[in-house]
Fold this protein.
Amino acid sequence: MTKIGILGGTFNPIHNGHLLLAETAREALCLDRVLLIPSGCSYMKDPGQILPGRIRLEMVRLAAADNPCFEASDAEIRRAGNSYTYETLELLREQYPEVELYHIVGADTLFHMEEWRYPERIFRNSVTAAAVREGFRDAGLQEQADRLAEKYGTRICLIPSRHMEISSTDIRERIRTGRSVRYLVPEQVRQFILQNGLYR
């Protein structure tokens, strides 16, 4: 069966940590491809601080261009109103009825997913792949994964992930103050940001 990973995020901007997470999940789970999905209107973030979706999507396209297994998706930015993960997964389930979907998240997310809109619909339509920092062992995390799997009748995979201390917030601040972001974001993305005067 074809297996597709889904990595969503604001991607404001996308950076090398996001790409490392996507590639780690692809390798660990033998995924055929990974969809990188910039969020539309995130109900959890201040929209005034976020670049328009079409610009973030273009940065994701540039970032994904040199990996044949990565694909930028406009599934959320083309949808009006707030972006909800359950809606995105249901849309992808309709698009790919014969495919196994893997929703890639950070390990800490397992402790918050029940606060999201309709978590049961998220778990129903995908396997959750939670990335755990390599060498990090937490019995509480495994307990939470087991509890969610039992409660929602779903599969949750814990995958070891290399960790890069990179944040989009830090990247935006570095650009604003004239410091280098070389090697924090893909070179094509860095050039795009400079050429378009983003985050100044």
Notes: The beta strands are 3-9, 33-38, 41-42, 70-72, 82-83, 100-106, 127-133, 156-161. The first helix runs from residue 16 to 29. The mean pLDDT is 94. The chain is about 40% helix and 20% strand.
